[in-house]
Design a protein that fits this description.
259 residues, mainly alpha, two-stranded antiparallel ribbon, 8 helices, 9% strand, Putative RNA-binding Zn ribbon-like protein
């Protein structure tokens, strides 16, 4: 299991990666890292003053380049561990000589000389966190959200490595609702035409609860989603009733012809 410090660092790195443009929580997001002054909020450990970062306009460009490299490591972590380790080694080499540090009950690694530049410090911090993750055999905990239209990076801190969705846009519940609606549609198509009441309403499954979702996050359908679901069910029943009525009418016509 990863140490709290490593988890905190990885979470900061994930937040930094998720500022890139792309699908985030079902929506296409633009570039959200527009200035180096955003770094302290994303990665508190940097402890860099905004004034100093504002003067270094080029820092934003270098930070985005670093973000691309870290995103690649994240993608490789779950699919190609050797390649991910090679990428981490490149970052470690750039961090320079390392030293052991002791804090509380934790012994870790740190650059022998702390870089003066915030982006370089971020690169070193990320490299060390990724190296410790690899040494603990936990690279598989670095994941990409499995929600539809979401490419957020996430850190699976669950005991059984079961976290599949990010917390940014309630992706777990969105996936659950979409799956439920798909089952309703399949049930409507497969319903017997002679049943005027239409298909029986599919049993609503239990809400998908992401093991790492915040405790106060409601994983339930919104009012809008409930209305849409009920509307779909009503439409399916009408469709089935119409089919049943047509079949009954055709049967009457057939009986009259026989008479």
């Amino acid at each position: 299991m990863l140490s709290p410090r490593t988890l905190a660092r990885l979470s900061s790195v994930a937040a930094f990666l998720n500022t890139a443009p792309g699908p985030r929580g079902g929506q296409e997001e633009p570039e959200r890292f527009t200035a180096a002054t955003q770094l302290p909020a994303l990665v508190p450990e940097l402890q860099e003053g905004e004034v100093r970062l504002r003067l270094a306009a080029a820092a934003a460009v270098r930070a985005r380049e670093l973000r691309e490299r870290l995103t690649r490591v994240w993608a490789l972590a779950a699919t190609d561990e050797p390649a991910a380790v090679d990428a981490v080694n490149e970052l470690l080499a750039e961090a320079g000589p390392l030293r052991l540090t002791a804090g509380g009950d934790v012994v870790g690694l740190a650059p022998a000389q702390v870089p003066a530049d915030a982006v370089e410090r971020l690169a070193a911090m990320a490299a060390l966190a990724l190296a410790e993750t690899a040494m603990d055999g936990e690279l598989a905990r670095l994941r990409v959200c499995e929600g539809e239209d979401c490419a957020n990076a996430l850190v699976d801190a669950s005991r059984n490595r079961s976290k599949r969705f990010c917390d940014e846009a309630n992706c777990a519940n969105r996936t659950h609702v979409r799956s439920y609606r798909a089952r309703l549609a399949e049930a409507a198509e497969a319903a017997p035409a002679t049943d005027p009441a239409g298909p029986e309403e599919a049993e609503a499954p239990e809400a998908v609860v992401d093991s790492e979702a915040p405790a106060d996050e409601p994983l339930q359908e919104t009012e809008k989603e409930k209305k849409e679901r009920r509307k779909a069910q009503k439409k399916a029943r009408k469709k089935a009733a119409k089919k049943a009525g047509k079949k009954k009418s055709d049967k009457k016509k057939s009986d009259k012809k026989k008479d």
